[in-house]
């Protein structure tokens, strides 16, 4: 399978890259600065030419266009993993500038990349778009408040995911939102309950089982549906 993973330099994106390579896939991995992505670039040598590392800033039209132009062949899977959570964004601590930055990366960045890669997705049969969301993006499950910027950005991503599902269903392209859970990454912290490898295994398993009937859905990494 030929796939794209954004935000592949660390955490979940890096582990998704490792596991996809282990499965024999060809991976186009996007990262803001390949020169600083030593763990990612270290995988190139053992990939048998199946790992291609690209510079990608999801907030930049120019960068995204260049990234899409560098892709080769039909893309069967796009994993929109690039994401951002800045400092505390509760009501009293919220920085509107930070909130805007999270919207730019988490929501608009996802849409920007998807639109640019769409011609390659259309070349594949039954391509899939998996956008990594969060349980914090659920409006129905928000019973604790806070997290304004991050919650808003992931809720916006969810809406884009749903619209993509409707717009692309007739072409057989699947679009879903998936939460990786609370994961032991730089963002999630060491106290998170889910190891990165476990989350990545679950994400790839859920993605692998997707059918067109699932398009427009919102899952967790165990395959359970999340309320919008």
UniProtKB/TrEMBL annotation:
GO terms for molecular function: oxidoreductase activity, acting on the CH-OH group of donors, NAD or NADP as acceptor. CDD domains: carb_red_sniffer_like_SDR_c. This is SDR family oxidoreductase. It comes from Corallococcus sicarius. Belongs to the short-chain dehydrogenases/reductases (SDR) family.
């Amino acid at each position: 399978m030929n796939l794209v993973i954004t935000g592949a330099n660390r955490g979940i994106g890096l582990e998704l890259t490792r596991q996809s390579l282990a499965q024999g896939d060809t991976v186009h991995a996007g990262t803001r600065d390949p020169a600083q992505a030593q763990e990612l670039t270290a995988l190139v040598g053992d990939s048998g030419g199946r790992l291609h590392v690209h510079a990608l800033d999801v907030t930049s039209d120019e960068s995204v266009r260049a990234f899409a132009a560098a892709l080769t062949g039909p893309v069967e899977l796009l994993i929109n993993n690039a994401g951002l959570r800045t400092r505390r964004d509760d009501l009293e601590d919220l920085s509107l500038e930070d909130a805007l930055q999270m919207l730019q990366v988490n929501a608009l960045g996802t849409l920007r990349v998807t639109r640019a890669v769409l011609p390659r997705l259309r070349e594949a049969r039954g391509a899939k778009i998996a956008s990594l969301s969060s349980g914090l993006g659920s409006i129905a499950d928000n019973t604790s408040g806070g997290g304004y910027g991050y919650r808003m950005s992931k809720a916006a991503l969810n809406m884009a995911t749903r619209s993509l599902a409707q717009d692309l269903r007739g072409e057989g392209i699947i679009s879903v939102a998936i939460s990786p859970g609370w994961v032991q990454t730089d963002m999630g912290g060491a106290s998170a309950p889910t190891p990165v490898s476990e989350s990545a295994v679950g994400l790839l398993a859920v993605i692998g089982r997707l059918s067109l009937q699932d398009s427009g859905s919102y899952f967790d990494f165990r395959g359970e549906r999340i309320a919008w």
